[in-house]
Structure formats: structure tokens, C-alpha cells
Amino acid sequence: MNQSQARTILDTIADMFPDAHCELNHSNAFELTIAVLLSAQCTDETVNKVTATLFQKYKRPEDYLAVPLEELEQDIRRIGLFRNKAKNIQALCAMLLDKYNGEVPREHEKLVELPGVGRKTANVVVSNAFDVPAIAVDTHVERVSKRLGLAGVNDSVLEVEKKLMKRVPREEWTQTHHRLIFFGRYHCKAQNPKCEVCPLVDLCREGKKRMKSNSNRKPIPKAKAAIKAAKTKEA
């Protein structure tokens, strides 16, 4: 993968999903932190359904600590791993009050110390809440990066992040993160990716294999056609 190919990928995905953004509903850094914590192994759609009422009931760290753990568990019961996440939320809120006066810290190294907050969550928070350039690698970003050759097939999540940080200009990190997610969520899906209408298929490891094995291979459309299809789906 050379820099010209990487630039082609970034520009094409930017054309396909110019309005890519964080799809987790939130109004401040605290709500975003809770939402991203809840989103682990769960869809953003489900998280947004739960937080629609959750964020009305709980507005500050103190609110999450004012109820029994069992009550919070019931409030997020539709979320996968809800018991463990409820425990982490209360522990996180306790630490925010104890160390940061109830405010979510802006520093990445402080965020990853919070219960239930890993590197991905911290990257999402600093980039979306505090406008600090970062690339959070979730399942979509990892899958797309490996398929398109932006990272190695056997790379760890951290290695994928580091390679993306080298290939993508720093000022584009945050937006590229969102665009890669949209590309993976709505176009280059884990199952049944849209290889037959993908303008990047010639740069895609898996796409080339899929199309080669497809006896009914259709002509690859121009980028504009794929972009139009993607935008229709996005809408």
C-alpha cells in the first residue's frame, strides 16, 4: 500500500460518506462516555433507544450513584453485558467525583484509567467531545482497514490504529474514523459486502477474491454510482 493508494481510499470514502458522524446520541462529554461504554458489543441503535430515557433520569455522576446497582441494571437491561456495564458505570462515576470533581477529563491517559473505558472509548471521547484528533478502532474500522490493505490481516487493534495514524493526515483522523465506520456499517459489511458496486474493489483483498470466485461477476460501476447508492443507504 503506497501513499497514493491510501489517498485514493480516503478520498473515495469521503465522497461516499461526506456527512459521516458519531451516531451515538449525546449532549455532553459525560453522556458520550456513558454511551460509548454501553456500545461495546452492542449496536448504536440499541444504545440510543436505551439512553433516550437513561439520560433523562441520570444527568450527573451523582445520579448514577444515588440508586441501587440493581435499579441501574434494569434501566440498561436491553444492553448486552448490562450487569458488568452497570457496575462499571457506577465505579466510573465514583472516580469522576473522587478525582475530577465530577467532570470527564480531557486527557487520554486519564480517560483510560476510568472503569470500563478502554483505548477505543477514550479516542471517541477526546475526538468528539474535546476536538482532539484521534482514530478509534472498532470492529468496522478494523475490518475495513484490513480488507483495503491499510493494515495487515494479522495486526492487533493497536497496530491498526498506529498504521492508520501514519497513513492519514492528523487533521483528518477524526473524520476518517467516522467515514470508515460508515463505509463498514453501510457498504463493506462483515457479511455480504457490496463488492459488486464498490469503487475500491481493486484495492480490496477480500473484494478481489470474492469477485474472482463469482462466476456471474458484474462490471464494476463508476465511483459515482457506488457513491450514489451509499448516500441513498445513508439517508
TrEMBL record:
The protein's role, per its UniProt record: DNA repair enzyme that has both DNA N-glycosylase activity and AP-lyase activity. The DNA N-glycosylase activity releases various damaged pyrimidines from DNA by cleaving the N-glycosidic bond, leaving an AP (apurinic/apyrimidinic) site. The AP-lyase activity cleaves the phosphodiester bond 3' to the AP site by a beta-elimination, leaving a 3'-terminal unsaturated sugar and a product with a terminal 5'-phosphate.
Keyword check for Translocase: no
Domain HhH-GPD, first and last residues per copy: 38-186
Organism, scientific name: Paenibacillus elgii
Family: Belongs to the Nth/MutY family.
Catalysis: reaction(s): 2'-deoxyribonucleotide-(2'-deoxyribose 5'-phosphate)-2'-deoxyribonucleotide-DNA = a 3'-end 2'-deoxyribonucleotide-(2,3-dehydro-2,3-deoxyribose 5'-phosphate)-DNA + a 5'-end 5'-phospho-2'-deoxyribonucleoside-DNA + H(+)
Record PANTHER family: A/G-SPECIFIC ADENINE GLYCOSYLASE/ENDONUCLEASE III (PTHR10359), ENDONUCLEASE III (PTHR10359:SF18)
Residues annotated as transmembrane: none
Residue sites binding [4Fe-4S] cluster per the record: C188, C195, C198, C204
Key words, A-Z: 4Fe-4S, DNA damage, DNA repair, DNA-binding, Endonuclease, Glycosidase, Hydrolase, Iron, Iron-sulfur, Lyase, Metal-binding, Nuclease
Cofactor info, note text: Binds 1 [4Fe-4S] cluster.
NCBIfam families the record matches: nth
EC number: 4.2.99.18
Protein name in the entry: Endonuclease III
Gene Ontology biological process terms from the UniProt entry: base-excision repair, AP site formation
